[in-house]
Amino acid sequence: MTSLPQGPNRLRLHNRVRVLEMLLERGRVSRAEIAEHTGISKVTTTLIVNELVEEGLLHEVSKTAGIVGRPAGLVELRPAIGNVVGFDVQPQALGLIQGNLRGEILKEETFVLEGSITKAILRQLETLDSLKQVVVAVPAPVGEDGLPQPPNSVPEFDAEKVLAWGRRRGVEVVLENDVKLGAVAEHRAGAASQNDNFALLAERASGIGLGLLLGGQLYRGERGFGGEIALVRWPQGRKLTPLEELPPPQRETALAQLVSGLAVALDLSLLVVHQDSAGALSLDLNAALQELVPPNVQVVKSKLGERAPVLGAFLEATRLAQAQLLHCVTVSAPLALPKGRSTR
After folding, report:
1. Which of 149, 180, 209, 310 has CA atoms 20 to 30 A from the CA of 221?
2. pLDDT digit string (tens) for 84-105?
3. Which residues contact 176 (CB under 8 A, 6 or more apart)?
4. What pTM, to 2 d.p., does this model score?
5. 293 φ, ψ to 5°?
6. Which of 37, 44, 36 is nearest to 15 (CA)?
7. What is the Cα–Cα distance from 119 to 145, expressed in whole angstroms?
8. Do 108 and 97 contact (CB within 8 A), yes or no?
9. φ, ψ dihedrals at 217, nearest 5°
10. What single-letter DSSP state applies at residue 138?
11. What is the C-alpha separation between 286 and 308, in angstroms, rounded?
């Protein structure tokens, strides 16, 4: 629930938020349905809905004849208040999911990259209408400045150009680590649904990553490097070798030992594992982890696989856009409509 300011308008603002939350959850509804679902009086509901229509957040879409009484007018969020998009950047591919503020997916594609990653993202952004929020999943830790940090599997990606595009267009652009966003997706719609303390271990073409959710919150670490186990150096003979540079059999064994120890230390209840089949890995991490962790830790395969990061980016973009919308109605501030071709 969005925090509300104190004062005489608190109840009014609280009711505005409840009306919008219902519309975000259910989509197209009548004023009578809003009043019944929220417990707000019909008179107050009508006043709030009319306000939101005048402010450009809602619009009347149709009439529906009920069994008894007069036809009820239906209202919904105006499409022009904004769409969201999530990207997943990999060295050879770009994933995209676009949808509306309700979290409904309108478009999903994966492109094989034949040139610049940056140009490919900007080209896609230019084709999308009424954008409000963009989240880009990158195979790198994201620092306090919001930019990718080493180790970065796509150093050629010019994040500054994409952020600058967003500033010019009035579109918020956020970057986040791909496996962290994969963990968000697994929590919302995958193997970790309803589990608030788990880790996602993912081996992708771009490298190894760990996404942690603790107490239902994504753990980023003090500087954004939480889960960057690829930075660990492992004894190999008389020298220390970065984990990702180990030969495959030794790398998988080291990963299993590290992650099982982490699961015990953090008292996790679940480990979700995704291994990219293209990597031709020599060890089944699920089986290796299951042997090492105590019985109270469950080890399962990812339900989302390679789709998890792009879905997580889309879900995070939706969450951020919804939070901005609800914040605007709590302070009675006009919501800046995104620039784009759509005027619906």
Report:
1. 310
2. 999 999 999 999 999 999 999 9
3. 135, 136, 137, 138, 142, 313, 316
4. 0.88
5. -85, 155
6. 44
7. 22
8. yes
9. -115, 140
10. E
11. 18
The token duo for 249 is: 């059999």
Length in residues, the chain: 344
DSSP strands (E only) in the chain? 29-30, 58-64, 72-77, 83-89, 93-100, 105-112, 131-138, 172-177, 198-204, 207-214, 217-219, 233-236, 239-242, 270-275, 298-301
Q: How far apart are CA 262 and CA 255, in angstroms?
A: 10
Tokens found for residue 59: 């619009």
Beta strands (DSSP E) in 178-333 are 198-204, 207-214, 217-219, 233-236, 239-242, 270-275, 298-301
Place of tokens 């149709």: 62
Integer Cα distance of 332 and 338 in angstroms: 18
> Which amino acid is present at 148?
P
Residue recorded with tokens 């020599």? 282
- In the three-class reduction of DSSP (H, G, I as helix; E, B as strand; rest coil), residue 241 is classed as strand
pLDDT tens readout for residues 57-66: 999 986 554 4
